[in-house]
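Lab notebook, page 48
Experiment: co-folding of the full assembly
Goal: obtain a model of how the components sit together before planning crosslinking
Operator: M.T.
Materials (sequences as entered):
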Amino acid sequence: MESIMDAFNNSENAEPQPEVVKTKPSLFIRAGRGRTGGSTGLDLVIQRARFQGRRVKPLDGDRRSRTLSTLYPSADEFGDPIEDGASFPVSDELPDIKEWLKGEFDEMVGEGVSRALDLSGGDRVMQEFVRDLALNEFCLHHGITPTVALFLGPDIEDFRHATEILKSGEFPAERTILVLNEGVIRHGQTTEGAFLPIMMTREFDALTDAGVRTSFLRRLSCMSVLRERGVGFYEAAAGRTDKAGLKSSPTLAFMVKTWLAAFERDLDEGKVADWLP
Amino acid sequence: MANRKRGTKAILKTIERSEQRSSLFWWMVENHDDILAAANGKRILWQPFCAKAAADGLTDTKGQPACERAAREAWQQARKYVSEMKAKAAAKAPRPVHPSRIDKNWRPANAPPPTNQLVPAAAGSHSLQELMPAIRKNPADKDDGYDPKARKASLLRLIAERSGH
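Observation: model returned without errors.
Model output:
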């Protein structure tokens, strides 16, 4: 925690920290039902890695929302390519998606650059692909540990869906994180009301006893402001100016800074910080 | 319609309640549990009780206000009567239940849950590994000191705190 809070001191001049430990690329897959805040969570994971000086390329397999493609365009306004911009399949056809994933995984091994894959609603695609390629074994062979993050909102169906995926055994699930996302709970609903029904099931105990880990993502009330202004979490926390030249207000910067610090604390406590790219 | 039902019930009650019993006795039977709770294991002070009962029109078998001794005896009989009625009710065979009335989630005792349903943490006796046989653990994470139970306890504290407790 101290380290991340320290990172915001002298925030005007905050620069990405040099990579120290990680050398092997990692594959971070967001799966599960839609509307659970997974794309935003994946965006946070990507921003965190980049802030800490590690390269991550977003792979946008969420064919409906295309969130990552919007947040991380692959070309600038002049059509020049942007390094580590998001890539996406040429069409929604299954063979194209498989081909796209195959190409990206080949590049990941060749370049040594981590990938963050958004697969909301694309579990079937992944299951087929995993079966075809033996993805887990492929990754392990190349020294890559795949991590799957299943985001959970307040709907018990989110959890039911996650357990079905994991029970199937067709996902590369040696490292799986269940993310309890407070950011998507309904207006008027308490955090307990949203997550106690999930946490008090035997499936939850069974999963966590079997090695699945958990993360709690707090609600950030100014999330929509950041989105509207197109400013990143770490830039806002550091009080930097956005694209329109507006500087984050002290309250906004403090809120984001506190939120990021709580996120880091939770990653440490849940022992999943090293699982992220 | 409702009035007729109430009238029938009252008539049946008079048949059921023998005139050999006093109105005080039946009042005690009806309020048996409340009297026990109010007494809270202590002796009942019969003198003020009798005064209050008389004021409310509760009488002995002769229609007279009950004296302390009569009230105490009526209470003993009422307790015995309630105890017998409860024993009878417990001994009665359960009413047959039509299959269409059985809850869809009903399962025989000790049966493992169906795999597509979530199970409350307190239920069942099957092992957790049986529920999640497909989960694999990365060998590198075995010795990092992660304790799922401590983590769950911490998360429960956090969500309680976030809910204003």
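Interpretation: Strands of chain A lie at 27-31, 56-60, 114-118, 146-152, 176-181, 213-217.
Next step: discuss with group before ordering constructs.
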